[in-house]
Amino acid sequence: MKEIRIPASKSISNRLLILQYLFPAIKLSNLSTAKDTKVLQHALKQIRQEKESPVHINIGHAGTAMRFLTALLASIEGKEFVLDGSERMRNRPIKILVDALKSLGADIHYLEKEGYPPLFIKGSKLPQNTVRLQGSVSSQYITALLLIAPVLPKGLNLILEGEIVSRPYIHMTLELLKQLGVEFSFEGNNISIKKLIVPEQTDFVVEGDWSSASYFYGKTAVTQSPVRLRPFQQNSIQGDQKIAEYFTKLGVETIHLDNHSIYLKPLENFVKPSYLSFDLIDTPDLAQTLAVTCAAMNIKCKLTGLQTLKIKETDRLEALKTELEKLGFEVKITGHSFELKAFEASSGESISIATYEDHRMAMAFAILQDLYHFEIENPQVVVKSFPGFWEKFTF
User: Using one digit for the tens of pLDDT, what is the confidence trace for 25-78?
Assistant: First the structure.
């Protein structure tokens, strides 16, 4: 049976890289090899080494790097930065985070369009310690603030207003801070973090990425082919570990093995459902995998809690609708939901699936390639999170 090594978690790696910049004694191993992580590493190297001011940093399509660096650069006293990205990044909003940082005392200006990169950032001490933020915004805005909180003069009191989405990503950040020795409380909608003087733990080993594993769950469900994946642990800090629970409804069983690997196998006596619904308010990155797997298995489905998907690498709801309709599926979307309603055979002409510079579009639609004949445009976009994906996805 094929055993596949899944890349280390990009989400964990990028958080730890920011913390390592703030606390250099931290040692990291098994970092993600994803392009986004390499982009962040290069940017942090620029910050450390370049003497000219302002330091010009371009993070391309890397949304996580844009959010995390906006907060980090604002907290680096005495240095000036220009933070820019690709054309798509220049159309991804950053105002909510910038406003939050300004309320802490940050000196940030927009160089072109109000509310969007590129940004001019003059680092400062950030003397204030209380900020309010809508809980329904991207968890990356929240995490960006949490990561710099331990070095702020008075720590941070973050008040989240309304419904909190992507809560597991917030817990992931807090768990890493806890392992570092940061004292915090998360009660109701309030997160309070104390300033950290000396970190307690300096060694981190990054675990495998559950989001990347999700595509192999989809392939196992569709082709009935078992596979072993590593490195994974049963008590993961990643919210996307819920993919194992979701896929029991799609006929895949997950068995945790002793050597930090998982075995995916078709469920015995599985009866395929005609309809499924999933609330993905905590796990929106799994939406494309579930949508395309249900399409491949001709299972009608409704996915909700997807309001953050409109500001990802692309508008993922619109992208899913457009590309699935090319293959004959009937799809309905709203600002926060996706519904797969019916399937009619496509006309059979040559079909090309666009990826919109979005790694998850390419990897999700790979699940359908065993059943339909189509070309995936710009397949190498997967390097953003999973270099070597196409070689490993043949089993």
Answer: 999 999 999 999 999 999 999 999 998 889 999 999 899 999 999 999 999 999
How many CA atoms within 13 Å lie on the side-chain side of 307?
A: 12
pTM as predicted:
0.87
**Domain 3-205 in this protein, CATH class:** alpha beta
**Predicted local confidence at residue 313, as pLDDT:** 63
Greatest CA separation for the chain:
66
Q: Is 84 a catalytic residue?
A: no
Question: Is the pLDDT score of 365 beyond 60?
Answer: yes
Task: Look at residue 373 and tell me whether its pLDDT is greater than 90.
Answer: no
Q: Around 305, how many Cα atoms within 13 Å sit in the side-chain half-sphere?
A: 16
Per domain, the residue ranges of the chain are 3-205, 210-392
Q: How confident is the model at residue 2 (pLDDT cuts 50, 70, 90)?
A: confident
Catalytic residue, chosen from 36, 84, 240, 285, is 285
Whether the Cβ atoms of residue 286 and residue 367 lie closer than 8 Å to each other: no
Handedness of CA 84, 89, 91, 92 (dihedral sign): negative
Are the folds of 3-205 and 210-392 the same? yes
- The CATH superfamily of 210-392 is Enolpyruvate transferase domain (3.65.10.10)
State the pLDDT at residue 86: 94
Q: What is the pLDDT of residue 344?
A: 72
